[in-house]
């Protein structure tokens, strides 16, 4: 059934439809947590959830994270909570301490997600809903491309993923940011404008304010949608690779003393993309470390270009050729 009806603004209808589709996967009678910053995206999400969740028998609680990173952050959080209550929702405000590891953006993101997870667990929530839009997805893909961080980063964000055992849903990944703003305007909601969203110190802001507009101007409209489609296609490819890796690993990987070993011949026989993924997965799963591309290629040479080279020191472990196998052992 079409979500539109006489008098319903098209932007409001689009956001509600996206939320309804996301909530359809949840069992009735539970609770959902909506991450609410007070910006247009999250405010439109909260309003749509307030409308759609009761139809599924779902209780909604908004959680506003006060990072304390700027003057007036407490007032902005209180305003967001008040907006949620005006929509008939329960509202919570959580103040977090933001560390310095990984830079301000990464540290704030980690603190935010930790707080959302804890709030969801406290509410016994079935899912957390965040307001990432198609524009956010496009920015994520461009940032991943610029950093050369491989297909995993270019996959962007998934519509559904896990957050330490809690289901994380992003209903608005197919919705443009302009649509959420239009939805807020149609419903008489006044979004908070986060000053950080205009601060050029942040790479994501530079992508949003400068890079994407230039691409749109030079290459024509539809760049954001094309980047989002690319992310979706790469996630499909990654899912297929993951199945292949699971099947392959069962045959070629064995546990060894103080580590794990992989058949060199079997590793060499696989395509490079699969070979490199197996190497990275072995190190990540056994030693909880990530390899750079250069490190991955050096390990691969133990299988594909063996000429007696010695052990390779890697993050958290060491790789060496031992007969027909490549052994990964913990570094002392």
From TrEMBL:
Primary localisation category: cytoplasm
Organism of origin: Microbacterium helvum
Presence of the UniProt keyword Nucleotide-binding in the record: yes
EC top class named in words: ligase
Binding site for ATP: 37-42
PANTHER family hit by this protein: TRNA(ILE)-LYSIDINE SYNTHASE-RELATED
Annotated protein name in UniProt: tRNA(Ile)-lysidine synthase
Family from the record: Belongs to the tRNA(Ile)-lysidine synthase family.
Domain of life: Bacteria
Keyword set includes Magnesium: no
Catalysed reaction equations from the record: cytidine(34) in tRNA(Ile2) + L-lysine + ATP = lysidine(34) in tRNA(Ile2) + AMP + diphosphate + H(+)
SUPFAM superfamilies, A to Z: Adenine nucleotide alpha hydrolases-like, MesJ substrate recognition domain-like
GO molecular function, one term: tRNA(Ile)-lysidine synthase activity
Function, as annotated: Ligates lysine onto the cytidine present at position 34 of the AUA codon-specific tRNA(Ile) that contains the anticodon CAU, in an ATP-dependent manner. Cytidine is converted to lysidine, thus changing the amino acid specificity of the tRNA from methionine to isoleucine.
CDD domains per the UniProt record, alphabetical: TilS_N (cd01992)
Domain notes: The N-terminal region contains the highly conserved SGGXDS motif, predicted to be a P-loop motif involved in ATP binding.
Intracellular or extracellular location(s): Cytoplasm
């Amino acid at each position: 059934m079409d979500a539109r009806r006489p008098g319903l603004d098209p932007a409001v209808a689009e956001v509600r439809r996206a939320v309804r589709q996301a909530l359809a996967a949840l069992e009735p009678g539970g609770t959902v947590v909506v991450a609410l910053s007070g910006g247009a995206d999250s405010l439109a999400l909260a309003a749509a959830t307030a409308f759609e969740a009761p139809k599924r028998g779902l209780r909604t609680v908004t959680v506003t994270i006060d990072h304390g990173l700027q003057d007036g952050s407490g007032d902005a959080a209180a305003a967001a909570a008040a907006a949620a209550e005006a929509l008939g929702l329960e509202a919570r405000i959580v103040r977090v301490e933001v560390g310095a590891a990984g830079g301000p953006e990464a540290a704030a993101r980690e603190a935010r997600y930790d707080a959302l997870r804890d709030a969801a667990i406290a509410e016994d929530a079935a899912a957390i809903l965040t307001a990432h839009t198609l524009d956010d997805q496009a920015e994520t893909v461009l940032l991943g491309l610029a950093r050369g961080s491989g297909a995993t980063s270019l996959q962007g964000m998934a519509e559904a993923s896990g957050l330490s055992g809690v289901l994380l849903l992003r209903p608005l990944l197919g919705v443009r940011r302009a649509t959420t703003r239009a939805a807020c305007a149609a419903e008489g909601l006044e979004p908070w404008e986060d000053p950080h969203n205009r601060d050029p110190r942040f790479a994501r802001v530079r992508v949003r304010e400068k890079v994407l507009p230039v691409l749109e101007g030079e290459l024509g409209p539809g760049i954001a949608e094309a980047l989002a489609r690319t992310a979706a296609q790469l996630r499909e490819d990654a899912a297929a690779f993951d199945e292949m890796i699971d099947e392959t690993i069962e045959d070629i990987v064995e546990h060894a003393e103080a580590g794990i070993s992989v058949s060199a011949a079997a590793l060499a026989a696989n395509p490079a993309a699969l070979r490199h993924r197996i190497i990275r997965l072995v190190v990540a799963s056994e030693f909880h470390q990530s390899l750079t591309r250069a490190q991955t290629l050096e390990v691969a040479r133990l299988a594909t270009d063996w000429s007696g080279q010695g052990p390779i020191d890697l993050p958290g472990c060491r790789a060496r050729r031992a007969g027909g196998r490549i052994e990964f052992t913990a570094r002392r």
